[in-house]
Amino acid sequence: MDEFQPEESFLIDDIETLRVVADPTRIQIMEVLTTQAHTVKQVADKLGSASSKLYYHMNTLQKNGLVTLVGTKMVANLQEKYFRASANQFQVAEHLLKLVPDGILDPISSIIASTLDTTKEDILRSMQARNFVLQGNEDEERQSAMVTRHIAHIRKDQAQKLIEKMQGILQEFAELEPEALDDSETGPWAFTVALYPTIYFPEEE
């Protein structure tokens, strides 16, 4: 399992693969499998879910090349399969980022919905898991988080500067490397950001 080296980047360049990955549960599975290999049960335990609910998703991800079977191990006459994300990061091809006129599938809508839904489910699960850890443990250090939404009237050049600044922060965030994955002070943090022009329809005369 340690011999497997994921690709640096995986390009999603067809609608079918985009359909597969545009699912909050599958995104969370892939996030768990990014740093190290896990069995379906281990992933289910981390997500607070039942293994039976994840087998279909795991098979779909594997079939489409998004996760890879990296090893097996026999435990009590049962074969445990270990999976790993096929790449360190996944990108969507530019030609898919266009509205589909017939409305069968709007890739942009799928990406936005899956990102926001995954963030929502991740936050709620994290809060439940954190509360479970804190029960009866007053010494456990509390952690900070921020989820907010603001609207401000700014110029286009000011918006561009903010975008560039956030891109720099995101790059810095992505390049932070822990000394060891099993470091008790190290844990996964999620970074979700959206900055866009809010455009309204003109008022009817």
Can you walk through the features of this model?
The protein is globular and about 75 Å long. It starts with 6 loop residues before the first strand and ends in a 30-residue tail after the last helix. The chain has 205 residues and is α+β, with helices and mostly antiparallel strands. The strands form two sheets. The chain has a two-stranded parallel sheet. A two-stranded antiparallel ribbon has the order 2-3. It is 40% helix and 14% strand. It has a domain at 7-136: Arc Repressor Mutant, subunit A (Orthogonal Bundle). It has helices at 15-21, 24-32, 40-47, 55-63, 107-134, 156-175, and strands spanning 7-12, 67-75, 78-85, 87-92. It is built from six helices and four strands; from the N terminus they run E-H-H-H-H-E-E-E-H-H.
Write the layout of secondary structure elements.
Blueprint: E1 7-12, H1 15-21, H2 24-32, H3 40-47, H4 55-63, E2 67-75, E3 78-85, E4 87-92, H5 107-134, H6 156-175
Parallel strand pairs: 1-4
Antiparallel strand pairs: 2-3
Strand order, sheet with most strands: 1-4
Strand content: 5-15%
Compute the number of helices: 6
Mean pLDDT: 84
- Please outline the major beta sheet: 2 strands, parallel
What is the correct CATH architecture of the domain at 7-136?
Orthogonal Bundle
Our measurement of the CA-to-CA distance between the termini, rounded to an integer number of angstroms, reads: 66 Å
| Stretches with pLDDT under 50, minimum 5 residues | none
What's the name of the CATH homologous superfamily of the domain at 7-136? Winged helix-like DNA-binding domain superfamily/Winged helix DNA-binding domain
Topology-level CATH name of the domain at 7-136: Arc Repressor Mutant, subunit A
Structural class: alpha+beta
Order of helices and strands: EHHHHEEEHH
Q: Roughly how much helix do the residues carry, as a percent range?
A: 25-40%
Rg over C-alpha atoms, rounded to the nearest angstrom? 20 Å
